Inverse folding.
């Protein structure tokens, strides 16, 4: 996010927070190379985090608090900070919450995290945009580490609210541990101990906590064992906050107070701005399973998730990952997605077929994709790999499904 991550030419702060949504919800072009974005750590968990961050706008709109020199804090009392926030939250029950500035949020974060040196601080308050945000580089004497907290709202009880706190499938990415727990107040929190790069080409660790309250308050906390999430040397063996401390930080009333002080807006789960490119409601994996040719066994699936789903199948010759994304209202991206050489069927459906190397680091992995767009704007994209996961070595020479079989599945009326 902010900080030195601007050095990443493919992922500058402002572009990636907004382009993440564009890629997954509109153009979907990157999904042709990695359909797992919608279901993996870099998809489900992270794109949801980016969606809340994207509401905040670009880096230019964020108020900088103390950028530059390090800030060495005296002893902080996290319990006291939480107590103060709780008192303020109770007071707000009978009056409109007072706005919180970026400096207020920075102060809350430093009190909650505790002693240490803080530098490269960036924060945005509740009165400076639709969503608050705070980012610091923290050093407790054991090495610098980036820590950030983002806040937003989701529709209570929505599929999005559930997905935020659902551990990603290991078929897409490696992580050391992940768990979801219900807190005493009914909030759900997922703590994931993973890595910045799914293919582990650099062992930068990314630990995060995603918390959603029964009221739809969403708190996202992330930390790294480096001063920036990308292109920064690893400075310590582990991020500074243990899973228990991550949970405690995410559950602090300080962030709920900030969310309550945000301007009223349509929760992200029902925003009309997100209807373009939105997924249809049919569960993907069960539909895909029904459309498979005979002779396949299924060892893993995405369950009843809609919009995006996957199966790991085996025809007796090795595991093969097959994944599907179904989207509505994609006609506006037709020119971007389908060139002049795309096949056009008699009913007007456009079809494009691609065979290319995998891009998640698995040795010898190839990806075969069939991309279709119907005249009503429904887009169905299906990809198959010659491995049970994109970031593990190939288990067979080619995917278990031929491009002809992929085409038949993609064009099935069952997706409608």
């Amino acid at each position: 996010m902010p900080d030195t991550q601007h050095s990443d030419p493919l992922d500058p702060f402002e572009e990636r927070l907004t382009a993440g949504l564009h890629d997954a919800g509109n153009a979907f072009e990157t999904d042709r190379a990695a359909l797992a974005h919608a279901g993996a750590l870099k998809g489900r968990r992270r794109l949801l985090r980016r969606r809340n961050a994207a509401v905040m706008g670009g880096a230019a709109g964020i108020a900088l608090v103390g950028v530059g020199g390090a800030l060495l804090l005296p002893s902080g009392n996290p319990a006291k900070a939480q107590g103060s926030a709780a008192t303020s939250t109770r007071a707000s029950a009978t009056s409109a919450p007072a706005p919180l500035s970026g400096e207020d949020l920075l102060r809350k974060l430093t009190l909650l995290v505790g002693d240490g040196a803080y530098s490269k601080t960036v924060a945005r308050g509740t009165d400076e945009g639709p969503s608050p945000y705070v980012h610091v580089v923290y050093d407790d004497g054991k090495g610098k580490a980036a820590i950030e907290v983002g806040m937003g709202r989701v529709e209570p009880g929505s599929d999005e609210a559930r997905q935020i706190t659902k551990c990603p499938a290991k078929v897409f990415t490696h992580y050391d541990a992940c768990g979801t727990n219900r807190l005493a107040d009914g909030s759900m929190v997922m703590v994931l101990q993973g890595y910045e790069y799914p293919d582990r080409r650099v062992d930068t660790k990314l630990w995060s906590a995603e918390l959603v309250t029964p009221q739809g308050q969403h708190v996202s906390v992330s930390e790294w064992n480096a001063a920036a999430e990308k292109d920064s040397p690893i400075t310590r063996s582990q991020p500074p906050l243990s899973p228990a401390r991550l949970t405690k930080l995410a559950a602090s009333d300080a962030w709920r107070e900030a969310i309550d002080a945000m301007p009223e807006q349509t929760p992200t789960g029902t925003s009309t701005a997100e209807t373009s490119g939105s997924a249809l409601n049919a569960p993907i994996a069960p539909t895909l399973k029904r459309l498979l040719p005979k002779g396949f066994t299924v060892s893993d699936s995405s369950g009843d998730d809609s919009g995006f789903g996957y199966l790991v199948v085996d025809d007796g010759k090795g595991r093969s990952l097959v994944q599907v994304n179904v989207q509505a209202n994609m006609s506006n991206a037709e020119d971007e997605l389908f060139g002049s050489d795309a096949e056009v069927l008699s009913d007007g459906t456009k079809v494009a077929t691609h065979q290319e190397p995998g891009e998640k680091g698995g040795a010898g992995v190839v990806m075969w994709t069939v991309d279709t767009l119907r005249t009503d704007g429904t887009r169905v994209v299906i990809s198959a790999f010659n491995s049970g996961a994109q970031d593990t070595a190939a288990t067979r020479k080619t995917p278990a499904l031929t491009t002809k079989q992929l085409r038949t599945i993609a064009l099935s009326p069952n997706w409608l």
DSSP finds eleven helices and 15 strands in the chain. The first strand starts at residue 71 and ends at 73. The radius of gyration is 22 Å. Confidence is low (pLDDT under 50) at residues 1-94, 266-276.
